[in-house]
Amino acid sequence: MILVIIIITTTTIIIIIIIIIITTTTISSSSSSSSSSSSIHHHHHHIIIITTIIIIIITITIIITIIIIITTTIIIIITMIIIMIIIITTIIMIIIIITMITTMVTITIITIIIIIIIIVVIIAITTTTLLSSSLMIVSPRSDKLPRGGAWDSGGGGRKRGFGTVITLYSE
């Protein structure tokens, strides 16, 4: 952009200098030559035609350069917008991928924890049932147990005067 502006200004300055040189040379040549008034008039016509052509060329070049500058800026803006859209979409995709990965990881961790808890519960239930079945206690007079159900720790399978208690040990 800056280079284009510099080129435009330098070309316009050069064209203006050329116009000045042409006009001065034509005026000096016309004044030095002892010619009639018709030839001077003819020279003035030439100067007017040349200056108008140069002015038209300068205006056309300025218009073309302005159009080029506008189109280049529009193209640059459009490309920047496209680049920003691409960057934003890639960032959104990365965020979506990261969230999907984190959700999958959390889901797998939660399922692993649930499976471990289920396994621990199953192991606890099976061990308690195995222990209770290995130490099966059968009491024909369970309704006559004392309050709190305190068993006699002594041998012989007796209960403090409340009937016989059968104790099965499977070791």
Written overview of the protein:
The protein is mainly alpha-helical. The protein has a domain at 2-97. 75% of the residues lie in helices and 2% in strands. The chain has helices spanning 2-32, 37-134, and strands at residues 137-138, 166-167. The chain has a two-stranded antiparallel sheet with strand order 1-2. The model has no long low-confidence stretch (mean pLDDT 73).
Q: What keywords describe this structure?
A:
2 strands, 171 residues, mainly alpha
- The helix/strand class is mainly alpha
Tell me the overall shape.
Answer: rod-shaped
Mean pLDDT: 73
Hey, roughly how much beta strand do the residues contain?
under 5%
**Portion in helices:** over 70%
Order of helices and strands: HHEE
Low-pLDDT parts are none
In the sheet with the most strands, the strands line up as: 1-2
Rg, alpha carbons? 54 Å
Report the end-to-end length measured between terminal Cα atoms: 97 Å
Number of strands: 2
Report the major sheet.
2 strands, antiparallel
What is the structure about, briefly put?
The chain crosses the membrane at residues 5-27, 47-70, 77-101, 107-138. The protein has 2 helices and 2 strands, in the order ααββ. The protein has helices at residues 2-32, 37-134; strands spanning 137-138, 166-167.
